[in-house]
Amino acid sequence: MNIEEITSFDVLIEIPKGSRNKYEYDFDLKKIRYDRMIFSSMMYPADYGFIPETLALDGDPLDALVLVTEPTFPGCVMEVKPIGVFHMTDEKGPDEKIICVPVSDPVWNKVNDLSELNPHLIKEIEHFFKVYKDLEKKKVDVGGFGNLEEAKQTVLTSLERYEKTKISFEKLSLK
User: Fold this and answer.
1) 37: how many CB neighbours lie within 10 A of its CB?
2) Distance between CA atoms of 89 and 98, rounded to whole angstroms?
3) Which listed residue, 20, 136, 162, 166, has the most CB atoms within 10 A of its CB?
């Protein structure tokens, strides 16, 4: 695969927009597990999940933030296209998040790059990830945003890392 081929992909939603509940996909059970409630009064600014069959630097599938008109639900699989990447570091190390829009949502599907978003939404996303773990006493460093090409490169690298490591394909796959 090359970078030009990365036009859309599936994301498995773990946490719907507006939720304080933190859900995570349990790869052993192949089900969504309630992890915890966010300690602060913050709510997720978009649907949140991961790109199957990728491997990020933190050892998990690559995270994705999906800008939606209405929240979906944990376990929903959605075809999305990338528009940028958010760089941050948490207690496990680098933790990039691909910013995406649903291809089937007419409100969002014409957006092709972060530069087309309302600047206030960008600030909300950055603020959420900067402070959402404060009351848990966990350190988070935000590193800013990257454009569409950087997002595609991050996805490609995570796909290649997944293929290279050959960790249990069934563990990280939805199939």
Assistant:
1) 10
2) 14
3) 162
